[in-house]
Design brief:
79% of the residues lie in helices and 0% in strands. The protein is built from 9 helices and no strands. It starts with a helix and ends with a helix. The mean pLDDT is 92. This is TetR/AcrR family transcriptional regulator.
Length: 194
């Protein structure tokens, strides 16, 4: 019984560290955030941090995985809730989700894209964790495009994702949801050509 409680306690401590690191990385960036800042915010020792994560990069990967889990779930739930007859309209709701986030003041961009950008060609494992998020969103979009019987649904899903990522960057830079509306319009035009 005590061993089970100890395992739960370790898992909770690990999750607390991930959530705290996630918030700090999101706000300050990855290179700008040192391990000391994470240790200070969690109140745990460096030794404990390194016991759970072998390196700062290991903690970043865990934070990217955490982001993917919550963000993919939120997007998927958002798309599934409304009853729309047209699967293409459902696929394009990813833009509506982003627009609502930005209009609510979430202007820090995509955590996975931020990590991928900071670690491009420097840390393959971090890039790989970021790619899981992107590929999952592409697969989600492609699922609806397939339902619409679009023959080149995979290619179109990648194109829509490129518009989505561009909208994220532009909305972050302009602190406005206008680029998202433009990207969704462009995605509709693309979809009409298939």
């Amino acid at each position: 019984m005590e061993k089970k409680i100890n395992q739960v306690s370790k898992a909770q401590k690990r999750e607390e560290m991930i959530k705290s690191a996630y918030a700090i990385f999101y706000k300050n960036g990855f290179h700008a955030t040192g391990v000391d800042a994470i240790v200070d915010s969690t109140g745990i020792s460096k030794r404990t941090l390194y016991k759970h994560f072998t390196s700062k990069e290991g903690l970043i990967i865990a934070a990217v995985n955490y982001y993917h889990q919550i963000m993919y779930g939120a997007i998927s739930d958002y798309i599934e809730k409304p009853v729309l007859d047209n699967p293409v309209d459902k696929a394009l709701m990813i833009f509506d989700f982003l627009e609502e986030l930005v209009d609510a003041g979430n202007l820090d961009g995509c955590f996975a894209m931020n990590a991928k950008t900071e670690y491009a060609h420097k840390a393959a494992e971090i890039e790989s964790a970021c790619d899981v998020h992107t590929k999952s969103l592409i697969a989600l979009i492609e699922k609806y495009l397939s339902e619409a019987e679009i023959k080149e649904s995979e290619l179109l899903a990648v194109q829509i994702m490129m518009l989505f990522e561009g909208a994220i960057l532009r909305s972050k830079a302009t602190e406005s949801s206008s680029p998202i509306k433009l990207a969704k319009s462009a995605a509709k035009v693309l979809c009409s050509q298939y």
